[in-house]
Amino acid sequence: MKQKVSDKAKKNVVKKEKVILPVYSAKAEEISKIFLPKEIFDLKPNSNLMQLAIRVYLFNQRKGLASTKTRSEVAGGGAKPWRQKGTGRARAGTIRAPHWRGGGTVFGPKQRDWTLKITKKMKKVALFSALSQRFKEGNLTIIEGINAKEPNTKKALGLLTKLGISGKILLVLPIQSQIIDKSFRNIKDISVKSVVNLNIYDVLSNNKIIFTEEAIEGLTKHFLLKGEDK
Fold first, then answer.
1. Are the CB atoms for 96 and 104 separated by under 8 Å?
2. Confidence at residue 101, expressed as pLDDT on a 0 to 100 scale
3. How confident is the model at residue 148 (pLDDT cuts 50, 70, 90)?
4. What is the DSSP letter of 196?
5. How far apart are CA 30 and CA 217, in angstroms?
6. 3-state secondary structure string, 106-150?
7. Would you call 187 exposed, middle or buried from its count of C-beta atoms within 10 A (0-12, 13-18, 19+)?
8. Which of 4, 162, 181, 220 has the fewest CB atoms found within 10 Å of its own CB?
9. DSSP designation for 77
10. Closest CA to 111 of 76, 71, 72, 62
11. pLDDT category, 18, cuts 50, 70, 90?
């Protein structure tokens, strides 16, 4: 008699179907092949979902701190500036009126919360769509790893030159490394991210994506094996 597999167990099973890419050494020599999970790198890009995820990301970066005071919020104006009649001047009831110097602002910006929300599943699928798009474009490169004991911009630039990669580049590491960050910091148009901090904006705002082998493993564990929805 066959045992039924629960839906929860099915979700935790990673499919065996994968795509393959070459792995390059620090000398830009192909040394092996790596299998990439199709769930992440072989989806049909969902342009509508990616656009929504980008919009949510950008809106959530807004601080919304601009704020002006209305006539009820500015200081002063408790007493009538002058009597209603007999002065020859236009009648006035308060110095806080908008047409007075130092008065309140009409229809000025007010502090607001620009935060938008998107479900965790939609956010994850949007990221996978972006990675799949870069893979299908041929803009995904896998390297063996970066072993550096101290920051060295010259070696970092040499690696990119040997790989023949130019333009806006995103380097994805398994974990954040201060040494590697400093090595690439002074190189124009390159950013460094760890797997857990990777987001769709980083992927789509850079033309080329470089993953280390360990970063691919970390990506698989973070989003598939552990069922993370971040």
1. yes
2. 93
3. confident
4. G
5. 19
6. CCCCCCCCCCCCCCHHHHHHHHHHHHHHHHHHCCEEEECCCCCCC
7. middle
8. 4
9. -
10. 62
11. low
